[in-house]
Amino acid sequence: MGRKRQIIISILALLSLTLVTTGVSYSLLDYDENDRSSKSRLTYNYTSIDEKNELSIVNSEPLSDVAGKKLSGDGNLFKFSVDGTIEKGKEIPYEITVAKDTNSTLSGDFVKLYLTEVVDGKEYPINTTVSQDGVVKKYSELSTSSVLDTWENRIIYQGIADYGNDGTFHRDYYIRIWIDGDAKIEPEVLTDGTLVYPYQNKKFTIKINVNQKEN
Q1: Sheet of 78-85: strands edge to edge?
Q2: How far apart (Å, rounded) are the C-alpha atoms in residues 92 and 65?
Q3: pLDDT tens digit at each of 215 positions of the chain
Q4: Which of 20, 72, 103, 137 could form a disulfide with 141 if both were Cys (CB 3.0 to 4.6 A apart)?
Q5: DSSP secondary-structure letter at 155?
Q6: CA nearest neighbour of 109 among 131, 139, 65
């Protein structure tokens, strides 16, 4: 019996690991860890063909803000949502962050990052990623998050999930990144006269996370 029990436990453990690594819906921490009866909670959901909460620039050309804001399709646009069940009189502060992969070879000084909220099919820019004059901010211009991670975290949005619509909370967001078309990028001149720009043969990857904050 002991042998069979060990095998069953091992199979259950493997099934649990598979569900964690392949899912695209992650439940955030309960609103109050000390109140186990609390039903308030948030869930981070995203759509990705490779089931990763990442977005990358690989060998791309610089774009203007006008063109960057229109990027679409897999690999150019990351779609996600924050959903929740909120008890009456409760609210959950949350923070959306992006983190630069340590293996990125392109500087954040060259990368524009644009976050929008989608309401009834229409996009509305989040001012955290757009300056007052309408210019999209660069990754390096975003505030650093206090969230600890092996990657460097930057804040792109801070919000509060409240009871609102009879306790059902839902927000849709899009993220786009591109190489700044207005950056003063000086090329390197090779011995044969070829011009090589700093963004060529480079990549920049960000991981998108939603974190519950202390109230």
Answers
A1: 25-27, 41-47, 78-85, 168-179, 111-119, 122-125
A2: 33
A3: 554 444 333 333 333 322 232 336 665 644 444 455 567 889 999 987 667 889 999 878 899 999 999 999 888 999 999 999 999 988 999 999 999 998 999 999 999 999 999 999 999 999 999 998 889 999 999 998 877 666 778 999 999 998 888 889 999 999 999 999 887 677 778 888 788 777 788 899 999 999 887 65
A4: 137
A5: E
A6: 139
